[in-house]
Structures are given as structure tokens and as C-alpha cells.
Amino acid sequence: MTETTIERERETAALLDRIAALEARVAALEAHPTQGIEDRLAMVVFSGDLDKAIAALIIATGAASMGLETSMFFTFWGLNAVKKQKIFAGKNLLEQGFTAMLPGGLGQMGLSQMNFFGAGAQIIRKLMRDHGVMSVEELFDLARELGVRMVVCDMSRELLGVHDDELVDGLEHGGVATFLGDATRAKVTLFI
User: Fold this and answer.
1) Same domain flag for 20 and 74
2) Which helix (H) or strand (E) holds 33?
3) Range of the domain at 16
4) By the 8 A CB rule, do 99 and 88 touch?
5) How much is the pTM?
6) Residue 172 buriedness (CB in 10 A; 0-12 / 13-18 / 19+)
7) 144 and 184: one domain?
8) Is 118 left (phi over 0), alpha (psi -120 to 50) or beta?
9) pLDDT tens track for 100-158
10) Cross-strand bridge partners of residue 153
11) What are the angstrom distances between the C-alpha of 146 and each of 70, 141, 163, 167?
12) Membrane spanning segments where (predicted)?
């Protein structure tokens, strides 16, 4: 055998070894193709603006209608979307200040742009009615009917002095680990 032939045989053997290793790797990946990814949508609702709450609820109800397990994690200003009332009793001065300055639910939220001291929110609500679009309150109710998981961030609730009796009934409480537990298995993750 010539030196060239021996070198070719070595290269062929090395190539065959690489092919075998790649085939084994492909087989392992095919055995676990998505590694835990499920038909889920995980959403952080951070904004306390009406238009963003509308968008979040439209996306959540659309995803749930399409069969995706949907979760919404309400944190910081997003807590405004899940409030039902303002309560001042039992709060310190800073917590009372936050309560006074922040909306007490979907009905009191303003727009992110062109709010005009609340007039913009009323215009959007009228336009939604005129065009047959569900109100934000109806979208919220529909999301719950469709089984959208709604989780309130405990840390944000504590920081802003939001008490349980200020929140809509039937919400879950959790922290970042709760959200990440949903997000790590989700095909879609959004931050609104």
C-alpha cells in the first residue's frame, strides 16, 4: 500500500466515525424533539394601560381559543387590570399614596397614548362598542371562561400595598418561579 492509500483510509475511517457520532446525536434529539415545549402561551402583563390590557386579553383569549394553555402573570402596574376596588384602610402612608394614584380596576385605566385626562379611554371604549368589539371587561370574563390562568405577582402586590380584598376573586398568587414554570414550557412567551 502506498502512503496516499493509507492516508485516504484514515480519512475515510475518521469520516465514518464522525457520521456515526452525528447519527447517534440525531437519534437522541429525535427521541426528545421539543424537550418539554408544550402548546402554551405565557404572558407577563406589566403595563397598567387600558390599550395594553385590551391587547393582552385579546391575545390571551385568542390563544386559549386555539387550544393553547394560556397563563397571564400580572406584575407591577399590570395589577391594575385585576383590581376590583380601592381600599385605603390598613395601609401605611406610602401604600395609601399608591392606592390613590393608581387605577382601581379596568374601568379606571387610561390609555398609554392620547389619554387626555381620561377622555381617550372613553373614546376607545365608544369605538369598541360602535365596531362590535368586546369591552375589556367582557374580554376579561371570556379569558376566565376559557380557562386562562391568571397569576398575581406576590412581590408587586406587597410593594404596592395591594391587599387581596382589592383584587378580583379567583386569582392565583405566585412569584417569578411561577411565571418561569409556565414560560419554560411555552411555545410563545410575551411581555406586555
Assistant:
1) no
2) none
3) 1-33
4) yes
5) 0.80
6) exposed
7) yes
8) left
9) 999 999 999 999 999 898 899 999 999 999 999 999 999 999 999 999 999 999 999 99
10) 174
11) 9, 9, 26, 20
12) 53-79
